[in-house]
Amino acid sequence: MKKTLLLCLIMLSFTIPSIVHAERNIAPQEDSTQQEKYKRDKQLRDKQQHDQQGRDKQLRDKQLRDKQQRDQQGRDKQLRDKQLRDKQQRDQQGRDKQLRDKQLRDKQQRDHQGRDHQERDKHQPQKWQQNHRPHGEHHNWSHPTYRHKIWQRTDHRTRGEMPFKWHQKFDHYSPHYHMEPIYGHEWNDRFPGLHLFRWQDRRGEGFWYRNQRIVDAMMFYDDSDELVSIGFVHDGIFVMLRDDEECYENNESFFLSWWNRNGGITIRL
Predict the structure, then answer these.
(1) CA-to-CA distance for 220 and 109, rounded, in angstroms?
(2) What is the CB-side half-sphere exposure of residue 94 using CA atoms within 13 A?
(3) pTM for the complete prediction?
(4) d(CA 201, CA 217)
(5) Which of 58, 101, 213, 215 could form a disulfide with 201 if both were Cys (CB 3.0 to 4.6 A apart)?
(6) Is the pLDDT of residue 123 over 50?
(7) Domain-by-domain residue ranges, the chain?
(8) 250 CB contacts (<8 Å, ≥6 apart)?
(9) Mean pLDDT of 108-131
(10) Contact status, residue 258 vs residue 247, Cβ threshold 8 Å
């Protein structure tokens, strides 16, 4: 028994140094593995951080480019809008100048026609001359032309408000109306002492006469540029409304032919 115990102690004394030596060999190996793992983790974190910084920089660069592009688009739009406004303003100024020039030419032509009438009247004392209309009274319709048998008196059947008021000045009309002067001896001979204008209502409202909406007519002004009569075609007959509340019809083919050539318009109920 003693021998056995002694033998075990001897064997243990040889075994302990081997175990200690093995443990000493294992410890450095574990330290090296941990260091390598830490180094790999750090490299991975550094790479992730570098990649994130790159993505952040790309995002900032893109946001900056987008902002610069929006700013440039805004400046381009402002420039285009300004150019468009300037062009519209120039066009409107051009149209206004054309209208003023046309009105001036028309007035000069009317003045010239009036002087011609006055000159002819001076050399023809027997010729009828228009009397000056006192304020509040109607136009002088005593000229023989307006008393000719071709003018047939009829009843006055307008409905609703008229687009003009009697004795209203020529330059007091709505911008929705188109006014164009009419010249020609055939008209002057039929309406002596009056100045004729073609009138069209662009809105299509006009006025009613015997179940027809009249949007295309003639306006007759005296030498004082005051409205004294309205003429239009109704059922193939020329109708003339006057400021003395009289209404006359004339069935001359001249009126209907002229109206057809120049695109006269009426609207029937």
Answers:
(1) 15
(2) 6
(3) 0.50
(4) 9
(5) 215
(6) no
(7) 144-268
(8) 150, 151, 152, 237, 238, 240
(9) 51
(10) no
